[in-house]
Amino acid sequence: xxxxxxAETTASGDAWSSRWPTCVIQQSPRGGLTVERHxxxxxxxxSVLDYGGNGPLVVxxxxxxxxxxxxxxxxxxxxxxxxxVAPDLSGFGFTxxxxxxxxxxxxxxLVKGVIDHYGGSATVIGNSMGALISILTSERYPDRVNSxxxxxxxxxxxxxxxISFPTAARLSVPLIPWLGGRLVDAFRDHxxxxxxxxxxxxxxxxxxxxxxxTVWEHxxxxxxxxxxxxxxxxxxxxxxxxxxxxxxxxGRFSELIHRVTQPTLLxxxxxxxxxxxQSAKWIGRQRPDWTVVLFEDVGHxxxxxxxxxxxxxxxxxxxxxxxxxxxxxxxxxEVEDR
Length: 338
Known about the structure:
By secondary structure, the chain is an alpha/beta fold. The protein has a single domain, classed as 3-Layer(aba) Sandwich (Rossmann fold), CATH 3.40.50. It contains 14 helices and nine strands. The chain has a nine-stranded mixed beta sheet with strand order 1-2-3-5-4-6-7-8-9, sandwiched between helices. Strand 8, helix 12 and strand 9 form a beta-alpha-beta unit. Helix 7 crosses helix 10. It is globular.
């Protein structure tokens, strides 16, 4: 059913564009900026939140079952010094599955297309699956990516002993051959939208009760939307299965990150139940030239749980990285003491 749905939507991309406004104006919850939702053509209709701004391009990439809304708490502030956009990935949010599919490889190509659409190259910020997609984009299209910011990236499991049974079950269900999609559908059929959102945010956030009200509102909007999309379960299962080889095989992941040439910042919550902080420490040992920052008492989505801290670390890291680049280039910039 989903594959038929995908074929229909990709074959009639113009129909999707005609159903979507070219531009929807929304008020940002932070910074008093206006956010525009555009539909752009990247081998099919891709929905993008455009936060505006002037300066270097920043592309924000959400994770599995997420959406561009996941960046609403940090993107408006970033837009004061950058040009910021956040796409809904293929098969997620308001973007239907594109012709290639919904795997991390397909979505790396989508991110490259978004960068091409807005011109030049970009800093790519990704969370969870979106961070893995960001790594793949930087490795395959190095001229499109200036630097990487990885927030709790999908990464090899350091030890199965660090994962609780409920977490292991949640990770495994979409991967079960033939049954994965049916089990996902069964869960949705036996829960309300509000129950599903509460379960999801409780799983990813260390303190879900402290999340901004807009996080709950947008998560509820997307969860309700996905129940109307015939491709939603298939997109989830295909994407989840494409992540598995990277998180199961440490050697494959290690080879991938060693091919990344761009400056990279990794932010990780110490209370992440999905990707244990030990995985972030392992990545740091693999790439000692990367900057790794652990956030105490934060879970899998620091940009929603501690947006101010994410912005502070990014600003300091970006300034230091630029200083290093200028020094290598033979310039001698003045650096403000912090």
